[in-house]
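Lab manual, section 2.4: Encoding a predicted structure.

Procedure: take the sequence of the chain (73 residues), apply the prediction step described in section 2.3, and record the output as structure tokens. A sample record is shown.
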Amino acid sequence: MANERLYLIYQEANDEECLLTIQPFTDEQALAEAINKLQARQVEEYTIIKGRKMNATLRLAVELAEAEEAEEA
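Recorded output:
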């Protein structure tokens, strides 16, 4: 598995935040231990992908507009 890794992807959310985690693993034993920890925290949904090490850039754009007051009749 030259230059390839296993990636564990999961999401945790509560009323105040939502976290998306992408965690790389080079061996299956460490991946299995991480999945067991997730299940102990009751995180049941996750994705495992196999791929090459890559760099990532997060770009986020938010447009804000002034809210208009609703006129009362």
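Check your result against the sample. The radius of gyration is 19 Å.
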